[in-house]
Amino acid sequence: MVAGGLDTYFQVMRLPCQKALLAAMVAFAVAQVDVAAARPRNSGVPNIMVDMDASGTPIIMHGLPKSPKSSVPGATRPIKSAEHPRRIARGSSGYVELTPLPRTGLISAAPAVAPYIPPPIANPSERIQELNHSFPLNRGLGLNPTDRDAYIRYNLTR
Predict the structure, then answer these.
(1) How confident is the model at residue 153 (pLDDT cuts 50, 70, 90)?
(2) Adjacent-strand bridge partners of 33
(3) What φ, ψ does residue 139 adopt, rounded to 5°?
(4) Rounded to the nearest 5 degrees, what angle is found at the Cα of 126, between the Cα atoms of 121 and 132?
(5) What DSSP line would sit under 21-90, residue for residue?
């Protein structure tokens, strides 16, 4: 009875395993189709939108200088040397000769910048407005009161 029970078990389990294997194969095939569709296709047919000569160079590129391509692998182009050899001082620094400053009358000291002095305010309402604007910065400094009205009265009489 035990042997018959195992045989029945394997027959029952064979069906889900076959379905799982079939599903995995279908998923793999779909993934391969997506990868193949993403590859660029080179059909070997020349592009009819760009006219080319016998060497494969587009017609529009005629007249432009060609880049030198070496047919020998590993070959390098010769390096151009400088026309005039330069003398470079050895050591950590070279001597730089001091040049004297020109003694002309054109160079003169610039005038000192004078601080801005606003014109005096004759109108009391303009003076009160100026004190209202300066109150947040000056309240409590020195002898200035901390109350706005007292600050204006104190500074208006000065």
Answers:
(1) very high
(2) none
(3) -65, 135
(4) 120
(5) HHHHHHHHHHHHHHHHHHSPP--SPPPTTS-B-TTS-BGGGTTSPPPP--SSTT--PPPPPPSS------
The rounded distance, in Å, linking the Cα atoms of 5 and 122 is 116
Q: Is residue 48 part of a domain?
A: no
Task: Please give the residue range of the domain that contains residue 147.
Answer: 124-156
* Residue in the block written with tokens 């030198």: 68
CB 148 within 8 A of CB 132: yes
- Note whether residue 50 is domain-resident: no
Q: How far apart are the first and last CA of the chain?
A: 119
Tell me how many domains the chain contains: 2
Q: Around Cβ 127, how many Cβ atoms within 10 Å?
A: 15
| Best mean pLDDT range from 32-41, 86-95, 145-154 | 145-154
Check: CB of residue 130 under 8 Å from CB of residue 121: yes
**Model pTM?**
0.26
